[in-house]
Amino acid sequence: MSQLIKDAFRQKEAQHRVPSFEAMWSQAEDVVAQKAAQPVNKRIASIESIAWIWNWRIMSPALAAVILFMVYLVGPQFMSRQSEAERVAQAWQEIQTQYEESLASETLLAKAKANSEFPDFQSDQIPEKAKVFELFRSESFHRAWESSYY
Amino acid sequence: MGQELHPLKDELSKLHTDAYGWALSLCEYRDQEAEEILQMAYVRVLEGSAKFEQDGTASLKTWFFAVVRNCARERRRGGQRSVKLVDRILNTQIEDSDSSALDQEFQAKEESAYIMAQIQKLPEKQREVIELTIYRDMTLEEAAKIMCVQLGTAKTHYARAKKILAKTIGKDVL
Q1: Contacting residues of A for B35, CB less than 8 Å apart
Q2: Tell me, what's the ipTM?
Q3: What's the predicted TM-score (pTM) here?
Q4: How far apart are CA B132 and CA A5, in angstroms?
Q5: Between A16, A22, A30, which is nearest B29 by CB?
Q6: CA B95, B101, B107 angle in degrees (round to 5)?
Q7: Which of A11, A25, A31 is facing B112, going by the closest CB pair?
Q8: Which residues numbered 29-68 in B keep a CB inside 8 Å of some CB on A?
Q9: How would you write the pLDDT of chain B (174 residues) with one tens digit per residue?
């Protein structure tokens, strides 16, 4: 039976012409020679393209343009954020001072009303304290207080 | 490089007919494709991407057949799916008509052609192991090396192919 299988393969192969070894081998040699030449050209081309990308004369204006564009985009936001932070810090400082002053004023007023330690006290004799109270009652103070609180 | 004589050229020229037959079998007997596969194998040998190690683990024939097989598989992976699909559809149609008139076909065709048709119906690895061991006079170990499988796997493929052929051909095969 194995002979039958061999015959079957042989018969199938006999229907096909075997190409010349020499022709195929020399063709393969040509392909290899072409392949050997190709990578060098490709390598040179790739190096040249990289050199072109990193060309200083081309890259420096492009980089400068990109940097300027970024500054234009981000700069104002950054600046405004900084001023906002400064404003909040300032407001908070004001509130602290005003609060301390108002506490002191209240104590003074209470004492004045009690009229024990300051028998000759008159509210119009302390204009600075009055100013502080005005400020404490003002709308801007409350806004600053709320913004700092939250 | 082309001017120097490659050390394997003479030996490969002796294997050429056999290798072409193997390439034909790997691409379902399409001449153009078989030539391309063999050409690819020669290119690999020449450029050194396929190197023959003379360490006694494999003969030159076994090694070169494995190179040819790898080239065929690679070629098939690289865009022959549409061709395969058309072939499969055509083969299915032929197979359908064959199965309906099996006896008729057996009488009409020569015995070897019928046997070949049955061999070609086998799964790829079973067909390969049958061809390598029966037709190309290789051992199962050599066939396993060419097919890149374990010896046990090759034996299994061989046994299954034998069983199927015995059933379809109706004789005690091998």
Answers
A1: 19, 24
A2: 0.73
A3: 0.55
A4: 11
A5: A16
A6: 110
A7: A11
A8: 29, 31, 34-35, 38-39, 42-43, 45-47
A9: 445 678 888 889 999 999 999 999 898 888 899 999 999 999 999 988 888 887 777 788 899 999 999 999 888 876 554 444 445 544 544 444 455 555 555 454 567 788 888 888 999 999 999 999 989 889 999 999 999 999 999 999 999 998 998 888 876 555
